[in-house]
Structure formats: C-alpha cells, structure tokens
Design brief:
Shape: elongated
Order of helices and strands: EEEHEEHHEH
Helix content: 40-55%
Structural class: alpha+beta
CATH architecture of the largest domain: Up-down Bundle
CATH class of the largest domain: Mainly Alpha
Number of domains: 2
C-alpha cells in the first residue's frame, strides 16, 4: 500500500511512504531533484514467548488447565448470584435480594484473581471465592430450615449453581496450591 505525504497526496520533495511486511520505509522518488535515495527502516520488535522468559514459581503464569475450572467456577457463581435462590408456593426469592450480592462480589474478586500472575495471591483469591460461594448458600439453607422447616420451600437454581461454583473454586484453589508446593 503506497501513501503519499502531504494533504494533496504529494509533498514538495516527492516522498512516498510504503508499508510492507512490518517495515516502514520512506524513499525519495523524485529523480529530477538530484537527491539521493534514502531508506529508513524500522525493524519490528520481537516479543519473546512466555515459555522462554524465566520466572520464579511464585510468579509463573497460570497453566491453561488451571484457568478453565477457575473461570468456570467464577461465571457459575456470578450467574447463580442473581437467579432464584429459594422457590416457594408464593413465588421465588432472587439471590440478588440477599446473600447473592455477596457471592457476586466474591466472584468479581475471583475473576480478578485469574488475571494475577502471583500464584500465592491467586490461590488466596480462589480460596476466598470458594469459602464465600460455599458458606453463604449453606448458611441460607440452614437458616431456612431453622425458620420454616423442610416443607414449603425448595432450593432454587441460583443456590445450587452458586454452591457448585464454590466447590469448583475450591478444587481450583487446591490445584493451584498443590502445583505451587510441587514447584518449590
């Protein structure tokens, strides 16, 4: 692709700018001006692959198999936080009206933890997501059994999805911890 400098597609010295294969070149194209041909080339930067960069085990990036369950758990908890947590004959109660907001906040922290390169910090964030996503639905069920007993209500899909996401987050935290301990 050839571009000419200036607003009228041609400058006083007749330079043409060419962009090809990652190089930016400027060549004098006016042979009548007597100017020597000038070539300026800027080489593209080469980026080293992550595997060739030496890092300590505590700051090594997460392996691809660690990110899948962790992100799955995070999105399960995020989605389940706003679905109905309790179904009754009078209707359903959304998780967003109670403890579901807290699980959503923990899930955003878990999502941020998947981007952190420090393994210890990532493990702590995954563990925090697991504790909140398992603890709050469990507390909700125990509290409902205390209040009304076992009849008249059923756990909703949001409660089950959030609890399942918490179990998956605990599994991901254990996997990160085990891998961190084996690298030390």
């Amino acid at each position: 692709m050839a571009l000419r400098c200036g607003s009228s597609n041609n400058c006083e010295s007749g330079h043409t700018m060419r962009r090809a294969a990652g190089y930016l070149r400027s060549a004098a194209t006016s042979p009548s001006s007597g100017a020597a041909s000038v070539r300026v080339a800027e080489r593209p930067r080469t980026i080293k692959p992550v595997s060739s960069v030496s890092r300590s085990p505590a700051t090594a990036p997460h392996a691809a198999n660690d990110a899948g369950p962790w992100l799955g758990a995070t999105f399960m908890v995020m989605f389940g936080s706003f679905l109905p947590w309790v179904d009754t004959a009078a209707g359903s109660v959304s998780g967003g009206r109670g403890a579901g907001l807290w699980t959503f906040y923990a899930a955003t922290l878990g999502l941020a933890g998947s981007l952190v390169t420090n393994r210890l910090l990532a493990t702590v964030q995954a563990l925090l997501l697991a504790v909140v996503a398992i603890g709050l639905p469990t507390w909700q069920v125990v509290h409902l059994v205390d209040l009304v007993g076992r009849s008249g209500w059923a756990p909703g899909p949001g409660l089950v999805l959030t609890f399942g996401g918490g179990v998956l987050a605990a599994s991901a935290a254990y996997s990160l911890w085990r891998e961190r301990a084996s690298r030390s």
